[in-house]
Hints:
Shape: flat
Largest sheet: 6 strands, mixed
Strand content: 5-15%
Helix content: 40-55%
Amino acid sequence: MSSKIEPSGFTNETYDRLFKAIFGRENQQSKQWRLELYNALRGTNYKDPDALEINTIENVIYLTMRNDISFLVDSQMTLFEQQSTYNPNMPLRGFMYFSQLYQMHLTKTGKSLHHSTLVKIPYPKFIVFYNGNKETPDREYLRLSDAFENKEKDGDFEWTAELININPNHNKTLQKNCKPLYHYIRYVARIKRNKKKGLQPQEAISEAVDWAIKKKLLNGFFKLQKEEVLAMSLTEFNAEEVTREFIEEGREQKALEAAINLLKMKILTPEQIAQAEGLSLERVLELQKEIPVLV
């Protein structure tokens, strides 16, 4: 097995800025951390962090795409992405990411698809680190075929994303073997703990950063990059809250529309409609008063 490590790609922006700041920068510490992460996942023992390079996927066609870290080791192209929201569409996103990575690889290696000989490409591996609130197993394989509208029985085509749960009580061996990932997990868990205690976003994050500094997590990274970490964490915190509110508003709107339709049909009582749609009885009775206006 060769120990040579070559590049594939890395985006300009990430879903999780802190994850990228830890594992995706071009300083010596970050190089060492991402090498530790790869070794922990693969059970390998690569020693030279400078042998691993990161390039950029330019978001020209797929403007909304975001992927965190990818690199090529021993003819395997590995893509890492961190997610704090469960997303069953990761296999499709990975499929699109890798189409860009393979184009970059073919261009760099001078290979052409218009020859009569078979072009060899690296084996793809898509890993999603998940630390959201939805309960998932330690590892889960999301399959692209689940999204096919007409699924063939023979299953000739498949694409998977390996979802790795990195919440505190999951994949403990991986956390033990990769200290920077373990420290990242502890910091995120601290923020979640503060949120549950009712702290406001700024207070929850400031306390977590001060705690991380006191614990000397990531070899002093939180102390050296305190202001940047505070800014990144608060930005992501606010984005998460906005997304959650948007989803909840959408659900409520659908429930209201369904309740109005059921009231018009006069099949169920207001009590039954409230229970079926997850609305308060008072809200359903208010809608009932508006029905003559709406009809």
